Amino acid sequence: MSKLLLTSTLFFSLVIVQFHSAHARLNTITGGISVNYDYDETVYDTEYDTTDTTELTSTRDNSYLKKFSIAPLFIYETKSSIDNLTIRFNPSLSYDQEESQSNIDHNFRISAFRKFTNRLRFDLSDSFIYSDDPELIEDDNSSDYNKGRKRYWTNDFILSSKYAYAANSSVGGGYAYRILRNDYTGIGGYEDYDKHTVNISLLHRFNKSWNIDLYTSYTRGLFDPPNQELVERVENGLENTSPGITDDINTNNLSNDLSEYRATTAVNWIFTQNKIFSATHSYTGSNYDALLRNDTNLHNLTFGAQYKPSKRFSFGLGGGPSYEKTETFDRNWDYNAHLNLDYALSKKSNISAGVEKSYDIQNFSQNNNSLGKDEGLTAFWKWQIKLSHKFTPDLNASLWASYRDEQQESILYGLANTTATNADLNTIDSDTLREETVYNRQIYEAGGSLKYSFLQWYTTSLRYTYRQQSSDVINDSYDEHRVFLTLSVQKELLRW
Fold first, then answer.
1. In angstroms, how far apart are the furthest CA atoms of the chain?
2. Could you tell me which of 282, 292, 280 has the C-alpha nearest to residue 361?
3. Residue 132: CB atoms within 10 Å
4. Is 302 exposed, middle or buried (0-12, 13-18, 19+ CB in 10 A)?
5. Quick count: other Cβ atoms within 10 Å of Cβ 9?
6. How far is 415 from 419, CA to CA, in rounded Å?
7. Residue 476 and residue 367: Cα distance in Å, rounded?
8. Which helix (H) or strand (E) segment is 34 a member of?
9. Positive or negative CA dihedral for 124, 130, 136, 139?
10. Which pLDDT does position 247 carry in this prediction?
11. What are 188-199's pLDDT values in tens digits?
């Protein structure tokens, strides 16, 4: 399937670029190479009592990586006033001292756009990655921060269009298809899936002061069948607690497939260029094929404002009610809120900070835990701060820190808790069961980076990240250190 997508992408890109040969074109070829060192150490917290849960879990090993890599870079770009085609190929040959083994990674991307008229534009891209680096996977809505260093490949195909029917008014739509495959899919490992997303957007300006922004999408997630050994362990645990509870469930044909619906409507009032007020309603709904997962509907209503009192300082804030209804459980009312600040300390220094409280529904995690997968309603608090400084035009640095406290619902986690306490699922009330399904995570992250450019084409950079996660879920608490050092050279080789 990935070869078909790549072939169709390349063919369509060449067609839209060559369709109008009358326009003057600029073609460039850029080459380069980088030498990298990647150090990653993840130590898991194994201080827990597994007396009653060994049937459901297995210990997760610590992870150590010391990897050297050499990565050549090739970029071909051809463009005119109405179209563009870019092909980027960045493979790497790596050697891991810890495992004493070498690998060849791939990072390929092709992107193109075409303006058929002054109002109508189409964009298309396809990217393929084969690696063990979690930083290369774009974050979706996953709360699983440590995606591990097991090898995977992913292919992302995106097609979108936009039609501007009036000044500051447009309608658009698109289709995205992601494939994720992993070298390891056993208990506690990764989960493979195909993700199809169709979206429609509308931006309409009523006048210079009022506009409305609409976005809606439908996603279908197709997952590999759950590991049968894991299913049998869960089934045995349930039967030991409540004999006969799984009689009506065909555990040989369970599915993690799902449908996800998202919609956002924002009404904006541009009071002045420095004062903007908005009212936003967002909806997320998840329908699960699996019998052990409850369908959920989530609504967030937010009233907010963006204000820039000076050239150096700006901030945004907002808040409002949140409502969620999960199948078989009572409905809940709560609130969402956010505050973001940005301040230029000087021409060379900038600081930004933010805090957010909200809800989301997580459905696509790149990394399983031993009970299944991170999936379900999530409530969270998040604080973050970042400081950046330019010492010279060629030397800049940044420091950052963040904290996230989240509570996620997982019916499998709740069933494991009731199994461990020998509760009778046939008599337990729904509110008590729901309390058992919620597990907590606290994620602390801090780091810094330093980047220096010299001799016109050379760049060296150093990045360090520390992440600490504390979780109620077994094998989900860890400390992680990562250091990434690189020296690269990139130069335009040919232009015509």
1. 77
2. 282
3. 20
4. buried
5. 20
6. 6
7. 11
8. strand 26-44
9. positive
10. 59
11. 455 788 999 999
